[in-house]
Predict the 3D structure of the following.
Amino acid sequence: MRRYLILGIVLLVMGLGGGMWWLLGDLPAPETVYERGALPTVVIVDREERPLYNIIDSHSGRHTILDLETIPLFVRQATMATEDKNFYENPGVDWEGIVRAFVINIRGGEVVAGGSTITQQVARNLLLDDEERAERTVKRKLRESWLAWRVARVVPKEDILGLYLNQMYYGAGAYGIEAAAQTYFGRRVDELTVAQGALLVGLTQAPSVYNPLVAPELAKERQEVVLGLMWAEGYLDEAGYEQAMRERLVYSSEPYPLNGPHFVMMVTAEVDRLLTAEEIRAYGGVTVRTTLDYDWQMAAERIVAEQLTRLNEPVGGGVNHQADNAALVAMTPEGEVRALVGNRDYFDEATAGAVNMALVRRQPGSALKPFVYAAGLDPNWGGALGDGEIWTAATMLPDVRQAFETHEGASYVPVNFSRTENGPVLLRQALGSSLNIPAVWALDKVGVDEVVRLMTDLGIEGWEAAETYDLSLALGGAPVSLWDLTAAYGALANGGYRFVPQIIDEIRAVDGRVIYEAPAPEMEAVLDERVAWLLTDILSDNDARRLSFGENSVLRLDRPAAVKTGTTNDFHDNWTVGYTPDVVVGVWVGNADGRPMVDVTGVSGAGPIWHYFMRAVLTGEGERPFVRPAGILRAEVCALSGMAPTDMCPYRRSEWFLAGTQPTDEDTFYRNVVVERGSWQLATERTPISEQVEMVVLDLPVLLQPWAREAGLMVWDDLLVREEGIKGTEEVVLQIVYPDPETRFRLTGEESLAAQRIRIEAAVAAGLGEVQLWVDGEVVAEPEVGPWVGWWGLVEGEHEVWVTAKDRAGQLWRSDVVRFEVCGMADGTDLPERGGC
């Protein structure tokens, strides 16, 4: 029995020994950790194999070994607080963390949770081979932990920390903290601030996610986590923590050889996403062939620099427009990026040159308008007015003063950039000339939620729920990046298909094997191709844009080109985005820090960059028209109403329509009447023939009548009220035109109270009479003819105004109530303070 027991013990020992040998026998000696760490080469080239950047060269690249003492104490402390707070106390392994990770991983079926100390990370990266490092198994975790325990026995803690800080990957091709400091901040590691050091320390967890040159907001969030851990561990006091949190991070780089720097940084982030550092080592280095055209890139950088110089240093003197930054994105209509300028000078720290402004979300101004109209024109997105009439390029839109109600119940009154109104305009002209009032009217009709849904489907990222936005969305009231907006215009260029922009074509191993090839672009249909073409036709119509931009602006090329500008309030941002059948180009001009420019619009700021870049890259290329899809036909319309013309319509135009949407109802805006000479009243049976004059007057919707009267045009409704027996209108329109809902007026001490009055104006349908204007239950005016205007003296407090009128049958009609407020006088007036709003 004893013999069997001994045999069992021997077999058990042999089994355990064999198992240990199987598990740990081939591991390298821990002392060899000093000998490891050779880094492979990653070469980035353009689509023609012309070099853009050599990320890492194992002999002379951006990888510098530093003594631990030369690395600032706060960087070491941040690293320990973030990665291994018990670094100096643990035996190289955090057993509690490993057990916790095993519990999580057993539930998940694979090793997904870490629990790795700094020593374990050093052991894994420097002692395990490339293939094993990529494994996520229990065996690898045990071998890594054993190695870490042995390394901690023979390697001093300071050396382990030094190896970690010198060998870890910090993204953008930077191995080691010194290379990271040079890459992101253009300074040595011993020149870093606490805020900068904390940001770099946070990168190692996920370099492709937190790369600050690509995702500055995410990088900042991660930095704040690191600073919080430093405070929690006592490495920062409260004052130091708050100072680091407030510090503005300005990214830059020393001028190492780099072509298309912002594009290259995007490529490195994408390589980090596609391949791990271990896989790159296993391939012996890789070559990344991108979609960039180096000739296009050089042209873009030159043109951006020249335009910013013209804006800030005008020849012969003039206004300094104070525009420091600009960005350009050029891609094919299928999404291959051919050029990308993220800023004027990547290496200019003073203007935040390293920040890729092509990826930063800013207010787009009127550059969103085509998509508002797209949602109205496309039957799949709304495409109909309240009465079921389908929108077309000939739909009449009212370009007159209107008050719209916001979510909060406040009054919103948009104005055109020119501060003028144009009365009835067709959708083609409203979009081509970028009129603000019709765009807000259109958004009010089609719905904010529909436009938000459309833009999201077109790839616009970062937008919140639709209820967050209001009608100002039509004028750019939601931030977008130039990258996303250019791709959205690409969907107009390619017939309505969304795509994901592509920057990498293929990746090859050092032996020439293709290890990654970009998949064929997934083109998802979002818009009806006929609607995409119709919008393209409008945006390329020089006649449609003449009202706002003139005959020969920089938006006009020597070939068909669709283009739209955008300018935000106070000139914070301006944009020009446009395309031909071959290329889509977006341009942004502004200041990275949000400062307003001085008198710079989308036409004068971004427009020249777009124009000259288009000419530079398309010169010598054959002119190609936009191909009209099937299901589009042409029809003649009356130019004022957009309806089918009658003999009385003096101005007509030919317009494109989706088949079946061409107008069939005849024009009603022009009416032939007979009036008395001199009085210009409607002639009656008692009017002598010699005194009768036949003429055409405008029979306009009530909303447009004040504009027509101000323009000196004769309005049919004004003739009707003077003639008894005229048949009343079937649609009774009665509304207060002014004041706008929820308007606030303030009394002033600069004039007498008796002189402080406001205009009360109403819109009254044809066939109504006995018009009365009411304020707080009292009649303030009874105009007999239009315009239906009265005056009311201001009284402090909240007030209600409405209008009443009677039809031919004597029935009384009453408008909706409009509420407004009159505030007391501000301090400093001659009259006493009477409260404020």
